[in-house]
Design brief:
The structure holds 2 protein chains of 2 kinds. By secondary structure, chain A is mainly alpha-helical. Chain A contains 4 helices and no strands. The model of chain A has no long low-confidence stretch (mean pLDDT 85). In chain B, the strands form 2 sheets. Chain B has a 5-stranded antiparallel beta sheet with strand order 3-2-7-1-8. Chain B has a 3-stranded antiparallel beta sheet with strand order 4-5-6, covered by helices on one side. Classes of the chains: A mainly alpha, B alpha+beta.
Protein backbone atom coordinates (compact mmCIF):
# COMPACT_ATOMS: atom_id res chain seq x y z
CA UNK A 1 0.00 0.00 0.00
CA UNK A 2 2.81 2.35 0.89
CA UNK A 3 4.47 1.57 -2.41
CA UNK A 4 1.31 2.44 -4.35
CA UNK A 5 0.83 5.58 -2.31
CA UNK A 6 4.45 6.55 -2.84
CA UNK A 7 4.13 6.07 -6.59
CA UNK A 8 1.01 8.23 -6.68
CA UNK A 9 2.83 10.82 -4.59
CA UNK A 10 5.78 10.73 -6.99
CA UNK A 11 3.50 11.24 -9.99
CA UNK A 12 1.72 14.08 -8.23
CA UNK A 13 5.06 15.64 -7.37
CA UNK A 14 6.18 15.40 -10.97
CA UNK A 15 2.96 16.98 -12.18
CA UNK A 16 3.12 19.79 -9.66
CA UNK A 17 6.81 20.64 -9.86
CA UNK A 18 7.13 20.26 -13.63
CA UNK A 19 10.89 19.80 -13.49
CA UNK A 20 12.96 19.72 -16.62
CA UNK A 21 15.25 16.83 -17.38
CA UNK A 22 18.93 17.78 -17.26
CA UNK A 23 20.53 17.49 -20.65
CA UNK A 24 23.08 14.98 -19.38
CA UNK A 25 20.31 12.65 -18.25
CA UNK A 26 18.08 12.99 -21.29
CA UNK A 27 19.19 9.84 -23.14
CA UNK A 28 19.13 7.68 -20.01
CA UNK A 29 15.95 8.61 -18.22
CA UNK A 30 13.51 6.91 -20.63
CA UNK A 31 15.52 3.70 -20.63
CA UNK A 32 15.87 3.81 -16.86
CA UNK A 33 12.13 4.30 -16.50
CA UNK A 34 11.40 1.33 -18.74
CA UNK A 35 13.89 -0.82 -16.82
CA UNK A 36 12.31 0.19 -13.52
CA UNK A 37 8.88 -0.64 -14.91
CA UNK A 38 10.22 -4.05 -15.85
CA UNK A 39 11.48 -4.57 -12.30
CA UNK A 40 8.11 -3.45 -10.88
CA UNK A 41 6.18 -5.88 -13.05
CA UNK A 42 8.62 -8.60 -12.12
CA UNK A 43 8.03 -7.77 -8.47
CA UNK A 44 4.27 -7.92 -8.90
CA UNK A 45 4.59 -11.27 -10.58
CA UNK A 46 6.83 -12.54 -7.79
CA UNK A 47 4.33 -11.32 -5.25
CA UNK A 48 1.58 -13.23 -7.03
CA UNK A 49 3.77 -16.27 -7.17
CA UNK A 50 4.31 -15.84 -3.47
CA UNK A 51 8.07 -15.63 -3.71
CA UNK A 52 8.41 -11.89 -3.41
CA UNK A 53 11.54 -10.89 -1.62
CA UNK A 54 12.17 -7.31 -0.60
CA UNK A 55 15.89 -7.46 -0.93
CA UNK A 56 15.72 -9.15 -4.28
CA UNK A 57 13.27 -6.58 -5.54
CA UNK A 58 15.32 -3.62 -4.42
CA UNK A 59 18.51 -5.02 -5.85
CA UNK A 60 16.88 -5.97 -9.13
CA UNK A 61 15.21 -2.58 -9.38
CA UNK A 62 18.42 -0.65 -8.85
CA UNK A 63 20.56 -2.94 -10.96
CA UNK A 64 18.05 -2.96 -13.80
CA UNK A 65 18.07 0.82 -13.90
CA UNK A 66 21.81 1.06 -13.65
CA UNK A 67 22.52 -1.63 -16.22
CA UNK A 68 20.05 -0.12 -18.69
CA UNK A 69 21.60 3.32 -18.28
CA UNK A 70 25.07 1.84 -18.55
CA UNK A 71 24.20 0.06 -21.77
CA UNK A 72 22.87 3.25 -23.29
CA UNK A 73 25.92 5.14 -22.08
CA UNK A 74 28.21 2.56 -23.64
CA UNK A 75 26.21 2.70 -26.84
CA UNK A 76 26.59 6.47 -26.91
CA UNK A 77 30.31 6.17 -26.44
CA UNK A 78 30.50 3.59 -29.23
CA UNK A 79 28.34 5.63 -31.56
CA UNK A 80 25.44 3.20 -31.61
CA UNK A 81 23.41 4.78 -28.80
CA UNK A 82 20.20 4.99 -30.77
CA UNK A 83 20.27 1.39 -31.92
CA UNK A 84 21.37 0.08 -28.55
CA UNK A 85 18.69 1.95 -26.65
CA UNK A 86 16.16 0.57 -29.14
CA UNK A 87 17.49 -2.89 -28.41
CA UNK A 88 17.28 -2.36 -24.66
CA UNK A 89 13.71 -1.14 -24.97
CA UNK A 90 12.81 -4.16 -27.07
CA UNK A 91 14.31 -6.58 -24.57
CA UNK A 92 12.69 -4.87 -21.62
CA UNK A 93 9.41 -4.68 -23.49
CA UNK A 94 9.51 -8.44 -24.12
CA UNK A 95 10.20 -9.05 -20.43
CA UNK A 96 7.38 -6.74 -19.38
CA UNK A 97 5.03 -8.56 -21.71
CA UNK A 98 6.09 -11.90 -20.26
CA UNK A 99 5.62 -10.70 -16.71
CA UNK A 100 2.26 -9.15 -17.48
CA UNK A 101 1.19 -12.41 -19.13
CA UNK A 102 2.16 -14.32 -15.99
CA UNK A 103 0.32 -11.80 -13.80
CA UNK A 104 -2.70 -12.14 -16.03
CA UNK A 105 -2.65 -15.91 -15.70
CA UNK A 106 -2.43 -15.59 -11.97
CA UNK A 107 -5.26 -13.15 -11.63
CA UNK A 108 -7.66 -14.38 -14.28
CA UNK A 109 -6.42 -17.90 -14.85
CA UNK A 110 -6.49 -17.20 -18.55
CA UNK B 1 14.59 -7.69 3.81
CA UNK B 2 12.60 -8.30 6.93
CA UNK B 3 9.85 -9.97 5.04
CA UNK B 4 9.39 -12.98 7.32
CA UNK B 5 6.20 -11.46 8.66
CA UNK B 6 4.49 -11.99 5.39
CA UNK B 7 5.88 -15.39 4.93
CA UNK B 8 5.10 -16.41 8.47
CA UNK B 9 1.49 -15.43 8.04
CA UNK B 10 1.25 -17.39 4.90
CA UNK B 11 2.84 -20.31 6.50
CA UNK B 12 0.32 -20.36 9.33
CA UNK B 13 -2.46 -21.04 6.91
CA UNK B 14 -0.98 -24.15 5.52
CA UNK B 15 0.30 -27.35 6.96
CA UNK B 16 3.94 -28.00 6.28
CA UNK B 17 4.10 -30.06 3.16
CA UNK B 18 6.63 -32.64 2.34
CA UNK B 19 6.86 -31.54 -1.27
CA UNK B 20 8.31 -28.21 -0.25
CA UNK B 21 11.90 -29.15 0.23
CA UNK B 22 12.49 -30.88 -3.11
CA UNK B 23 10.77 -28.00 -4.88
CA UNK B 24 12.87 -25.51 -3.08
CA UNK B 25 16.00 -27.23 -4.14
CA UNK B 26 15.11 -26.82 -7.78
CA UNK B 27 14.91 -23.08 -8.53
CA UNK B 28 18.52 -21.98 -8.37
CA UNK B 29 19.48 -24.58 -10.97
CA UNK B 30 17.26 -23.60 -13.92
CA UNK B 31 17.23 -19.98 -12.96
CA UNK B 32 20.80 -19.67 -14.12
CA UNK B 33 19.57 -20.03 -17.69
CA UNK B 34 16.57 -17.71 -18.00
CA UNK B 35 15.05 -18.50 -21.33
CA UNK B 36 11.65 -16.90 -21.78
CA UNK B 37 9.99 -19.38 -24.12
CA UNK B 38 10.99 -22.24 -21.89
CA UNK B 39 9.36 -20.70 -18.89
CA UNK B 40 6.15 -19.81 -20.62
CA UNK B 41 6.05 -23.33 -21.89
CA UNK B 42 6.24 -24.75 -18.41
CA UNK B 43 3.70 -22.24 -17.27
CA UNK B 44 1.26 -23.42 -19.86
CA UNK B 45 1.80 -27.02 -18.96
CA UNK B 46 1.38 -26.18 -15.31
CA UNK B 47 -1.89 -24.51 -16.06
CA UNK B 48 -2.98 -27.54 -17.98
CA UNK B 49 -2.29 -29.86 -15.10
CA UNK B 50 -3.89 -27.56 -12.58
CA UNK B 51 -7.32 -28.44 -13.79
CA UNK B 52 -6.65 -32.19 -13.60
CA UNK B 53 -6.94 -32.63 -9.88
CA UNK B 54 -5.56 -31.93 -6.46
CA UNK B 55 -2.56 -34.20 -6.44
CA UNK B 56 -0.70 -33.03 -9.57
CA UNK B 57 -0.38 -29.68 -7.89
CA UNK B 58 2.85 -30.90 -6.48
CA UNK B 59 4.08 -30.56 -10.04
CA UNK B 60 2.32 -27.24 -10.30
CA UNK B 61 4.36 -25.68 -7.58
CA UNK B 62 7.51 -26.49 -9.38
CA UNK B 63 6.98 -24.57 -12.61
CA UNK B 64 5.77 -21.55 -10.74
CA UNK B 65 8.95 -21.59 -8.77
CA UNK B 66 10.74 -21.75 -12.09
CA UNK B 67 8.76 -18.89 -13.44
CA UNK B 68 9.52 -16.91 -10.34
CA UNK B 69 13.11 -16.92 -11.30
CA UNK B 70 12.73 -15.11 -14.59
CA UNK B 71 11.37 -11.67 -13.60
CA UNK B 72 14.80 -10.92 -12.21
CA UNK B 73 17.24 -13.43 -13.58
CA UNK B 74 20.33 -11.53 -12.60
CA UNK B 75 19.09 -10.76 -9.14
CA UNK B 76 18.15 -14.36 -8.75
CA UNK B 77 21.67 -15.46 -9.36
CA UNK B 78 22.74 -13.05 -6.67
CA UNK B 79 20.09 -14.20 -4.30
CA UNK B 80 21.18 -17.76 -4.55
CA UNK B 81 24.06 -17.66 -2.13
CA UNK B 82 22.32 -15.10 0.06
CA UNK B 83 20.29 -15.42 3.25
CA UNK B 84 18.78 -18.81 2.80
CA UNK B 85 16.43 -18.01 -0.08
CA UNK B 86 15.78 -21.69 -0.18
CA UNK B 87 13.61 -21.44 2.86
CA UNK B 88 11.66 -18.50 1.54
CA UNK B 89 11.24 -20.01 -1.87
CA UNK B 90 10.23 -23.29 -0.34
CA UNK B 91 7.53 -21.83 1.76
CA UNK B 92 6.12 -19.79 -1.05
CA UNK B 93 6.40 -22.50 -3.58
CA UNK B 94 4.08 -24.55 -1.46
CA UNK B 95 1.61 -21.76 -1.24
CA UNK B 96 -0.09 -21.92 -4.64
CA UNK B 97 -0.64 -25.57 -4.04
CA UNK B 98 -2.56 -24.75 -0.90
CA UNK B 99 -4.77 -22.30 -2.72
CA UNK B 100 -5.51 -24.66 -5.52
CA UNK B 101 -6.41 -27.42 -3.14
CA UNK B 102 -8.69 -25.19 -1.14
CA UNK B 103 -10.52 -23.42 -3.94
CA UNK B 104 -10.05 -23.74 -7.68
CA UNK B 105 -11.38 -20.21 -8.17
CA UNK B 106 -9.24 -17.07 -8.29
CA UNK B 107 -10.71 -15.72 -5.07
CA UNK B 108 -7.83 -16.42 -2.69
CA UNK B 109 -5.36 -14.87 -5.08
CA UNK B 110 -7.30 -11.67 -5.23
CA UNK B 111 -7.57 -11.77 -1.50
CA UNK B 112 -3.84 -12.15 -1.24
CA UNK B 113 -3.29 -9.22 -3.60
CA UNK B 114 -5.58 -7.13 -1.48
CA UNK B 115 -3.79 -8.28 1.64
CA UNK B 116 -0.46 -7.39 0.08
CA UNK B 117 -1.65 -3.98 -1.00
CA UNK B 118 -3.27 -3.09 2.29
CA UNK B 119 -0.51 -4.28 4.54
CA UNK B 120 -0.60 -2.06 7.57
CA UNK B 121 3.03 -2.78 8.40
CA UNK B 122 5.60 -0.12 7.59
CA UNK B 123 8.89 -1.89 7.63
CA UNK B 124 12.21 -0.59 6.45
CA UNK B 125 11.99 -2.75 3.36
CA UNK B 126 8.57 -1.41 2.55
CA UNK B 127 9.88 2.11 2.94
CA UNK B 128 12.73 1.44 0.55
CA UNK B 129 10.36 -0.07 -1.98
CA UNK B 130 7.97 2.82 -1.55
CA UNK B 131 10.84 5.23 -2.07
CA UNK B 132 11.91 3.46 -5.23
CA UNK B 133 8.40 3.43 -6.62
CA UNK B 134 7.95 7.09 -5.73
CA UNK B 135 11.12 7.91 -7.63
CA UNK B 136 9.86 5.78 -10.51
CA UNK B 137 6.54 7.60 -10.64
CA UNK B 138 8.33 10.92 -10.47
CA UNK B 139 10.79 10.00 -13.23
CA UNK B 140 7.99 8.55 -15.32
CA UNK B 141 5.89 11.68 -15.26
CA UNK B 142 8.95 13.91 -15.71
CA UNK B 143 9.99 11.99 -18.78
CA UNK B 144 6.48 12.02 -20.18
CA UNK B 145 6.15 15.74 -19.71
CA UNK B 146 9.59 16.60 -21.02
CA UNK B 147 8.97 14.40 -24.02
CA UNK B 148 5.72 16.20 -24.67
CA UNK B 149 7.40 19.58 -24.29
CA UNK B 150 10.72 19.39 -25.99
CA UNK B 151 11.05 19.97 -29.67
CA UNK B 152 11.43 16.89 -31.78
CA UNK B 153 14.64 18.15 -33.36
CA UNK B 154 16.61 17.50 -30.18
CA UNK B 155 15.94 13.78 -30.49
CA UNK B 156 16.66 13.46 -34.17
CA UNK B 157 19.73 11.73 -35.47
CA UNK B 158 22.45 13.66 -37.32
CA UNK B 159 21.46 12.12 -40.66
CA UNK B 160 17.92 13.35 -40.26
CA UNK B 161 19.14 16.72 -39.10
CA UNK B 162 21.37 17.05 -42.16
CA UNK B 163 18.45 16.16 -44.40
CA UNK B 164 16.17 18.65 -42.65
CA UNK B 165 18.88 21.29 -42.94
CA UNK B 166 19.33 20.72 -46.65
CA UNK B 167 15.57 20.81 -47.11
CA UNK B 168 15.47 24.13 -45.32
CA UNK B 169 18.35 25.43 -47.42
CA UNK B 170 16.60 24.48 -50.64
CA UNK B 171 13.41 26.08 -49.37
CA UNK B 172 15.33 29.23 -48.44
CA UNK B 173 16.82 29.37 -51.96
CA UNK B 174 13.40 29.03 -53.51
CA UNK B 175 12.01 31.74 -51.29
CA UNK B 176 14.95 34.03 -52.05
CA UNK B 177 14.33 33.60 -55.77
CA UNK B 178 10.68 34.32 -55.22
CA UNK B 179 11.53 37.44 -53.24
CA UNK B 180 13.77 38.83 -55.99
CA UNK B 181 11.19 38.12 -58.68
CA UNK B 182 8.51 39.78 -56.57
CA UNK B 183 10.77 42.78 -56.04
CA UNK B 184 11.24 43.01 -59.81
CA UNK B 185 7.50 42.95 -60.23
CA UNK B 186 7.15 45.73 -57.66
CA UNK B 187 9.68 47.86 -59.51
CA UNK B 188 7.97 47.24 -62.82
CA UNK B 189 4.62 48.14 -61.38
CA UNK B 190 6.05 51.26 -59.77
CA UNK B 191 7.67 52.45 -63.01
CA UNK B 192 4.50 51.50 -64.85
CA UNK B 193 2.49 53.61 -62.45
CA UNK B 194 4.91 56.50 -62.93
CA UNK B 195 4.77 56.32 -66.70
CA UNK B 196 1.02 55.94 -66.49
CA UNK B 197 0.86 59.07 -64.32
CA UNK B 198 3.04 60.91 -66.84
CA UNK B 199 0.78 59.79 -69.65
CA UNK B 200 -2.24 60.96 -67.67
CA UNK B 201 -0.63 64.33 -67.09
CA UNK B 202 0.28 64.68 -70.74
CA UNK B 203 -3.24 63.70 -71.75
CA UNK B 204 -4.75 66.22 -69.34
CA UNK B 205 -2.44 68.94 -70.65
CA UNK B 206 -3.31 68.04 -74.22
CA UNK B 207 -7.00 68.05 -73.34
CA UNK B 208 -6.59 71.54 -71.89
CA UNK B 209 -4.78 72.79 -74.98
CA UNK B 210 -7.36 71.26 -77.27
CA UNK B 211 -10.14 72.69 -75.11
CA UNK B 212 -8.64 76.16 -75.43
CA UNK B 213 -8.13 75.78 -79.16
CA UNK B 214 -11.59 74.35 -79.61
CA UNK B 215 -13.11 77.10 -77.52
CA UNK B 216 -14.65 74.86 -74.92
CA UNK B 217 -12.45 76.07 -72.04
CA UNK B 218 -11.92 79.58 -70.75
CA UNK B 219 -8.36 80.84 -71.15
CA UNK B 220 -6.17 83.44 -69.57
CA UNK B 221 -2.80 84.83 -70.52
CA UNK B 222 -0.86 87.78 -71.88
CA UNK B 223 -2.62 89.55 -74.69
CA UNK B 224 -4.51 92.69 -75.57
CA UNK B 225 -7.91 94.07 -76.36
CA UNK B 226 -8.54 95.57 -79.79
CA UNK B 227 -11.44 97.94 -80.31
CA UNK B 228 -12.69 98.49 -83.86
CA UNK B 229 -14.64 101.71 -83.76
CA UNK B 230 -16.67 102.38 -86.94
CA UNK B 231 -17.47 105.77 -88.33
CA UNK B 232 -20.63 107.20 -86.87
CA UNK B 233 -23.77 105.71 -88.44
CA UNK B 234 -21.86 102.85 -90.00
CA UNK B 235 -20.90 99.36 -89.06
CA UNK B 236 -17.66 97.47 -89.36
CA UNK B 237 -18.17 95.18 -92.37
CA UNK B 238 -17.82 91.40 -92.01
CA UNK B 239 -14.87 91.38 -94.42
CA UNK B 240 -12.90 93.68 -92.16
CA UNK B 241 -13.71 91.58 -89.12
CA UNK B 242 -12.67 88.41 -90.96
CA UNK B 243 -9.44 90.08 -92.09
CA UNK B 244 -8.70 91.18 -88.57
CA UNK B 245 -9.29 87.67 -87.22
CA UNK B 246 -7.08 86.16 -89.92
CA UNK B 247 -4.39 88.71 -89.23
CA UNK B 248 -4.52 87.90 -85.52
CA UNK B 249 -4.33 84.16 -86.24
CA UNK B 250 -1.37 84.77 -88.47
CA UNK B 251 0.29 86.70 -85.65
CA UNK B 252 -0.02 83.69 -83.35
CA UNK B 253 -3.20 84.43 -81.44
CA UNK B 254 -4.23 81.40 -79.42
CA UNK B 255 -7.67 82.34 -78.11
CA UNK B 256 -10.06 85.10 -79.15
CA UNK B 257 -13.46 86.40 -78.33
CA UNK B 258 -15.34 89.27 -79.90
CA UNK B 259 -18.10 91.41 -78.45
CA UNK B 260 -20.05 94.39 -79.68
CA UNK B 261 -21.76 97.32 -78.10
CA UNK B 262 -24.31 95.93 -75.68
CA UNK B 263 -23.96 92.32 -76.81
CA UNK B 264 -22.41 89.27 -75.22
CA UNK B 265 -18.98 88.03 -76.27
CA UNK B 266 -18.65 85.24 -78.85
CA UNK B 267 -15.73 82.85 -78.82
CA UNK B 268 -13.89 82.74 -82.12
CA UNK B 269 -13.04 79.23 -83.20
CA UNK B 270 -12.10 77.56 -86.48
CA UNK B 271 -15.73 77.20 -87.57
CA UNK B 272 -16.79 80.74 -86.70
CA UNK B 273 -18.43 82.53 -89.59
CA UNK B 274 -18.96 86.22 -90.24
CA UNK B 275 -21.75 87.62 -92.40
CA UNK B 276 -23.04 91.15 -92.80
CA UNK B 277 -26.46 91.74 -91.39
CA UNK B 278 -28.57 94.66 -90.37
CA UNK B 279 -27.25 96.22 -87.19
CA UNK B 280 -23.78 94.76 -87.46
CA UNK B 281 -22.10 91.44 -88.16
CA UNK B 282 -23.64 88.03 -87.68
CA UNK B 283 -21.03 85.96 -85.86
CA UNK B 284 -22.07 82.37 -85.21
CA UNK B 285 -25.69 83.41 -85.09
CA UNK B 286 -25.19 86.37 -82.78
CA UNK B 287 -25.49 89.92 -84.12
CA UNK B 288 -22.57 92.02 -82.99
CA UNK B 289 -22.79 95.73 -83.76
CA UNK B 290 -21.33 99.07 -82.82
CA UNK B 291 -17.84 99.08 -81.45
CA UNK B 292 -16.34 95.61 -81.86
CA UNK B 293 -14.05 94.64 -79.01
CA UNK B 294 -11.72 91.71 -79.71
CA UNK B 295 -9.96 90.13 -76.77
CA UNK B 296 -6.99 88.10 -77.94
CA UNK B 297 -4.38 85.98 -76.09
CA UNK B 298 -0.99 85.95 -77.75
CA UNK B 299 2.27 87.83 -77.94
CA UNK B 300 1.15 91.52 -77.68
CA UNK B 301 4.08 93.00 -79.59
CA UNK B 302 3.74 90.61 -82.50
CA UNK B 303 0.02 91.25 -82.66
CA UNK B 304 0.50 95.03 -82.51
CA UNK B 305 3.03 94.87 -85.32
CA UNK B 306 0.74 92.66 -87.37
CA UNK B 307 -2.17 95.04 -87.02
CA UNK B 308 -0.20 98.13 -88.00
CA UNK B 309 1.55 96.90 -91.11
CA UNK B 310 0.79 99.06 -94.18
CA UNK B 311 -2.41 97.94 -95.88
CA UNK B 312 -3.35 95.94 -92.81
CA UNK B 313 -6.26 96.10 -90.42
CA UNK B 314 -5.39 99.55 -89.18
CA UNK B 315 -5.31 101.05 -92.66
CA UNK B 316 -8.48 99.27 -93.76
CA UNK B 317 -10.49 100.53 -90.83
CA UNK B 318 -9.14 104.04 -91.19
CA UNK B 319 -10.00 104.03 -94.91
CA UNK B 320 -13.59 103.26 -93.93
CA UNK B 321 -13.55 106.21 -91.55
CA UNK B 322 -13.25 104.22 -88.36
CA UNK B 323 -10.49 103.91 -85.82
CA UNK B 324 -8.59 101.09 -84.14
CA UNK B 325 -7.65 101.36 -80.51
CA UNK B 326 -5.37 98.93 -78.70
CA UNK B 327 -5.39 98.34 -74.96
CA UNK B 328 -2.66 96.28 -73.34
CA UNK B 329 -3.83 95.42 -69.84
CA UNK B 330 -1.15 92.71 -69.58
CA UNK B 331 -3.18 89.66 -68.73
CA UNK B 332 -6.50 89.18 -70.44
CA UNK B 333 -9.18 86.57 -70.04
CA UNK B 334 -11.16 84.87 -72.76
CA UNK B 335 -14.19 83.55 -70.96
CA UNK B 336 -16.78 83.05 -73.67
CA UNK B 337 -17.27 79.43 -74.63
CA UNK B 338 -18.09 77.76 -77.92
CA UNK B 339 -20.75 75.07 -77.88
CA UNK B 340 -19.04 72.05 -79.39
CA UNK B 341 -20.90 70.34 -82.15
CA UNK B 342 -21.64 66.69 -81.63
CA UNK B 343 -19.68 64.77 -84.21
CA UNK B 344 -21.89 62.63 -86.37
CA UNK B 345 -19.56 61.20 -88.98
CA UNK B 346 -15.96 61.72 -87.95
CA UNK B 347 -14.31 59.27 -85.54
CA UNK B 348 -10.82 59.32 -84.20
CA UNK B 349 -8.35 56.81 -85.59
CA UNK B 350 -7.23 54.59 -82.73
Amino acid sequence: MYAVLAMIAGIALGVILEPTVPVALQPYLPIAVVAALDAVFGGIRARLDGIFDDKQFVISFVSNVLVAALIVYLGDQLGVGGQLSTGVVVVLGVRIFGNVAAIRRHLFKA
Amino acid sequence: MIDPHDNANDRDDQPPTDGASPDAARPPGPSASPAEPENTGTDESARGTAGAGARPDAADGEPTADADADPEPTADADAGPDVGPDVVDGELAGEPRDDEVGAATGGPRWRRIAAAIFTPKLTAANMVIALLLGVLGFALIVQVRSNANESTLANDRPDDLVRILSDLDARKDRLTTEISSLQNTVQQLNSGAQSQQAALDAAAKRADELGILGGTLPARGPGLVIDLIPASGQQIPANTVLDTIEELRGAGAEAMQISGTGSAAVRVVAATYFTDTTGGVDIDGATIGGTLSITVIGDPQTIQAALSIPGGVDDTVRNDGGTVSLQTPGTVEVTALHEPQALQYAHSVP
